[in-house]
Design brief:
alpha/beta; FAD/NAD(P)-binding domain; seven-stranded mixed β-sheet; six-stranded mixed β-sheet; 13 helices; globular; FAD-dep_Monooxygenase_BioMet; monooxygenase
Length: about 375
């Protein structure tokens, strides 16, 4: 029986473990955290990700715990629409995306794995192209090492050496709030060097995020964020007022430069370890799910890892570049650029969004 060690129990790591297990591999997942969980964050799953989840056999469960993302668009700080999503066309062309709490998605993936597959509290110190992994409990060897250990991946060093994440120039606060506010229209609001996003979850709570230009590692408080967005349209101030400072997440936004390879020897990288991207297209987790399916179907072939690299690297790097461009436009701070951006959004035909999304969402297993 072929063996695999997956380093990292995030979305990509658990999906890869499940996909490989379904194909007869013996899999161990090594996770440094004491438990597999995530608080304060939702995730959009577009049609390409849902196809991957269907291939894993958990798509039905995900949809049952998710809410269909049926209305969206972009507004300005006063609440005036700049762009409305053509929901009917997107649904007909690609299928309806859903929004789910990340913790729920992780639990669905973890529960689908055999007992004891995931071992928590184990820190990986190094990986080697011969299939050896050095970790806090000793050394392990496998036929395949999957580096799913995030943007600051340890496993990636064996493939590409040290790769420094790049700061995107803006920071993000994310929260899942329990509030009496109800959303009839949701999506994103774009202002001057700042954005706010909101969407409902299936359990009645609302996932929201606030993004603004800031120096790297700049300190900040939730009260400062509330003050920054105090003049924005309803219900943005109300959502921030309901955010719990004990569960809100604050992270600077990074990506990584294009890697020259996703594989070396017995090692394959996926997810953020391979192509960490800014969240502006909602494709980070979706691409990790695509990676997992593709890798599981190729890994047993003699040249399978080379084929995986050829298929996944150009696609994910293209999507990362698109996401970075959208982020740059969304974070415009100069008034003339904001005026041009907002005018372009208002004048763009509804069909433009569908055409632009097609290369991203048309992926099939």
């Amino acid at each position: 029986m072929r063996t695999a060690i997956v380093v990292g129990a995030g979305i990509g790591g658990l999906a890869a473990a499940l996909a490989l297990t379904d194909r007869g591999w013996s899999v161990r997942v090594l996770e440094r955290a004491p438990e597999v969980t995530e608080v304060g964050s939702g995730i959009s799953l577009w049609a390409n990700a849902l196809r991957a989840l269907d291939a894993l056999g958990v798509g039905k469960q995900v949809r049952a715990q998710a809410l269909a993302d049926v209305s969206a668009g972009i507004r300005d700080e006063r609440g005036r629409w700049l762009s409305r999503t053509d929901v009917a066309t997107l649904r007909e062309r690609f299928g309806t995306p859903v929004l789910i709490h990340r913790a729920d998605l992780l639990e669905i993936l973890r529960s689908a794995l055999p007992e004891a597959t995931v071992r928590t509290g184990i820190s990986v110190r190094a990986a080697h192209i011969d299939g050896t992994v050095d970790h806090s409990e000793g050394t392990s060897t496998a036929d395949l090492i999957v580096g799913a250990d995030g943007i600051r991946s340890v496993v990636r060093r064996a493939v590409c050496g040290e790769v420094a994440p790049r700061y995107a120039g803006y920071t993000a606060w994310r929260a899942v709030v329990d509030t009496a506010e109800s959303l009839t229209e949701f999506g994103e609001t774009w202002g001057r060097g700042a954005r706010f996003g909101m969407a409902p979850l299936a359990d009645g709570r609302i996932y929201c995020f606030a993004v603004y230009n800031a120096p790297e590692n700049a300190p900040g408080t939730l009260d400062e964020v509330r003050a920054r967005f105090a003049g924005w349209h309803h219900p943005i101030p109300e959502l921030l007022a309901a955010a719990d400072r004990n569960t809100v997440l604050h992270n600077d936004i990074y990506d990584i430069p294009d890697l020259p390879a996703f594989t070396a020897g017995r090692i394959a990288l996926l997810g953020d370890a391979a192509h960490a991207m800014t969240p502006n297209l909602g494709q980070g987790g979706c691409q990790a799910l695509e990676d997992a399916i593709t890798l599981s179907r190729l890994a047993a072939d003699p040249n399978g890892l080379a084929t995986y690299d050829r298929r996944r690297r150009p696609r994910t790097q293209m999507i990362a570049k698109r996401s970075a461009r959208i982020g740059s436009i969304g974070q415009f701070a100069a008034p003339p650029l904001i005026a041009l951006r907002n005018t372009a959004l208002r004048l763009a035909p509804a069909s433009a969004q569908s055409r632009s999304l097609a290369p991203v969402l048309d992926w099939t297993c």
